[in-house]
Amino acid sequence: MASHIPEPLRVLVDQLAHLPGLGPKSAMRAAMTLLKWPESETRRLGQGIYELRDRLRLCSRCGGLSATDPCAVCADPERSRESLCLVPEWDSMLTLDAGGFYRGQYMILGGLLSPLEKHDGDGPDAERLFARLAEGEIQELIFALGATIEAENTATWLLQTVRRRFPSIRITRLAQGIPLGAEVKYMDKETLRQSMQYRQELR
Ligand SMILES: [Zn+2]
Description:
Helix content: 40-55%
Mean pLDDT: 89
Distance between the termini: 64 Å
Radius of gyration: 22 Å
Bound molecules: zinc ion
Order of helices and strands: HHHEEHEHEHEHEH
Low-confidence stretches: none
CATH class of the largest domain: Alpha Beta
Strand content: 5-15%
Shape: globular
CATH architecture of the largest domain: 3-Layer(aba) Sandwich
């Protein structure tokens, strides 16, 4: 960034340029936009960023971001306490829950096993999951970890471990298959293989 840019602006642009999707040029454009906003708006944004770390915490039940502990989802008495949906990250939980078709509990795993990690080692934050399952309320554990190699690796490891420690808990995973609107001829082999393997009976 050129040296004749005033220091406060340069500091802001450097910071903004670290955000996903923003390079130095678009960061400068964003900073200039902020300068054109009414002062109260710019200050409100600044205050929001300032308070982000102070006012947010991790929910001790699901591990999601929340202003309260437990979070609104975990504290909701209308939700079923018998199923637990395991997601890799908080945004996965938001997306799933926005659909409104799942009304059980969630837990954020907070990371997946890379293909190089050994299955016999400690999984990502799995002790929190095991502690939750040991409470005895959960009857079904749903893997919603995605369809990447890391997700498969994690699911395999968790399946073995959970089966061994909690043999009565039913373990399911999100169906994998052909996305809505897609054509069979354009599907990759692995998607097709899984679609065939988990095919459903028509009723
Ligand atoms: Zn929660």
